[in-house]
Amino acid sequence: MKKSRIVLTAIALASMISAKAKIVLPDLVSDNMVLQQQTEARLWGKATPKSTVEVRCSWTNRIFRTTALQDSTWLLTVATPKASFTPQTIVITEKGDKEANSVKLGNILIGEVWYAGGQSNMEMPLSGFRNCPVGNASQEIATAGEWAGKIRMATVPKTGATTPQEWVSGCRWQVPSPATAKSMSATAWFYAQMMERVLQVPVGILTVAWGGSSVEGWTPRQILETYKDIDIPKELKRGWNGKWWEYYTPLIMYNGMLHPVRHYTIRGFIWYQGESNVGKSTYYDRMKTMIKVFRDEFGGSPASLPFYLSEIAPWAGYGPYDSAPLLRDAQHRIGRDVENAGCICINDLVEPFEARQIHPHEKRQVGYRLAYMALNNTYGLKDINTDYPTYDHSTVSNDTVRIFFKHADNGFSRMDDIRGFEIAGDDGKFYPAQAMIKENDLSIYVIAKEVAAPKKVQYGYRAFMPGNIRSTYGLPVVPFRADIGNYQRSLKAGSN
């Protein structure tokens, strides 16, 4: 993002706003949008100061009114009906002393609206990134038009700012087609598909993501100033290849991308991020703080705005082998500890050949699993299973460890060729372990010839160690590390 683009955008907006007797709307309030059903949905814009702004919606005879403030801004709410695939219209009119003018918005759907945020995991479009494809991309793009009357997506472009912005340009709502779908978030696309199929209502996705961004990038200045390890002026000046406007910079995503869209009424958040926070012990606390910021920005409580996140996928480039596992642990702890939140596991969705590809090709199941969690927890569809098998406790007999799990009441997806388990003795050195399941037994037995007296056990607990065992519902075992004999996962391993 160039500074010149930011400046020109600001000048253009200022010119529009200065025009008298004219309704000006943010890009996000546009044709093709989806409004959250059965709520008070916010609309906002600019108009002549002190003028009356009237909003007429095709689904009701009621007229919604407000008065533009001295700085020309206005905001009001409109009561929305039950979800419908019938396109609606909204007419926004400014009534001044001498004349009235209107803006008409069309092809609007009423349904469920979700915010999809994070870094490149969520940003990654159906067309993929360099050397990182999305599975079955051509088919999804070619058939995207089938969803034109069901799914709409708005994508906020990467826009940084050092102070909170009121508007952001370039995020008009798009109708799926081969031309538009290729640039839509793949994870959000599959999430929307599953949500629409199950709920049978229109689904709108607001994608707000910047590749490589950290939690600190989505956090406001007043909170960052309390973090002793962050010097904001220094961070803004130090640069990357001589540029300061880069993905790792604190606060600029909050200012330029999150804050400007805060008025749009949503049902909840899905989040896919974490790589840039690997190796930082601050992630757990700062992520919890960020979730509160997000909810506050959108004017909701924990009860009204669920937050569902995905753990980061295995990747060989994370450095020390336990840095990424510890962050995944923190993500699952957040899913447990934060009210109305949850975390999905995706350890099994990576192929061995993707060790050096930070973006695995499997995005469909990531989106689906996030949808399953939302459908179960937010929409009350409890028959949709979202319980991932998690470590409970273990025992040892001679050289064999027996591991017991929660949420594996019907056993596992395989009994042979189970990979990813390791055990260690007194020296703390882990060795690959042979794992087996006995018939009619719901526990897993592991053994390693190098370890005569096992003291610790772990599963998938490395930067890159894809899992291959799931519950009978197809949900993977959550990676863990634990001391044998402990009946509760250690703080390091987290608890789910």
Topology:
Layout: H1 3-18, E1 34-36, E2 40-46, E3 52-57, E4 63-67, E5 73-79, E6 84-95, E7 100-118, H2 120-123, H3 137-142, E8 151-155, H4 178-181, H5 186-199, E9 203-209, H6 221-224, H7 232-238, H8 252-258, E10 268-272, H9 283-297, E11 307-310, H10 323-337, E12 341-344, H11 364-377, E13 390-397, E14 400-406, E15 421-424, E16 430-432, E17 434-436, E18 444-447, E19 456-459, E20 480-483
Parallel strand pairs: 1-7, 7-9, 7-10, 8-9, 10-11, 11-12
Antiparallel strand pairs: 2-5, 3-4, 3-6, 6-7, 13-14, 14-18, 15-16, 15-19, 17-18, 19-20
Helix pairs in contact: 5-11, 9-10
Describe this structure in words.
The protein is elongated. It is an alpha/beta fold. Strand 3 and strand 4 (63-67) form a beta hairpin. The longest helix has 16 residues, at 3-18. The protein has three domains: 3-109, Immunoglobulin-like (Sandwich); 111-377, Rossmann fold (3-Layer(aba) Sandwich), CATH 3.40.50.1110; 390-483, Beta Barrel (Thrombin, subunit H). The chain has helices at residues 3-18, 120-123, 137-142, 178-181, 186-199, 221-224, 232-238, 252-258, 283-297, 323-337, 364-377; strands at 34-36, 40-46, 52-57, 63-67, 73-79, 84-95, 100-118, 151-155, 203-209, 268-272, 307-310, 341-344, 390-397, 400-406, 421-424, 430-432, 434-436, 444-447, 456-459, 480-483. The protein starts with a helix and ends in a 13-residue tail after the last strand. 21% of the residues lie in helices and 24% in strands. Strands 1, 3, 4, 6, 7, 8, 9, 10, 11 and 12 form a ten-stranded mixed beta sheet that branches. It has a four-stranded antiparallel beta sheet with strand order 13-14-18-17, with no helix packed on it. A four-stranded antiparallel beta sheet has the order 16-15-19-20, with no helix packed on it. The model is unreliable at 1-21 and 487-496 (pLDDT under 50).
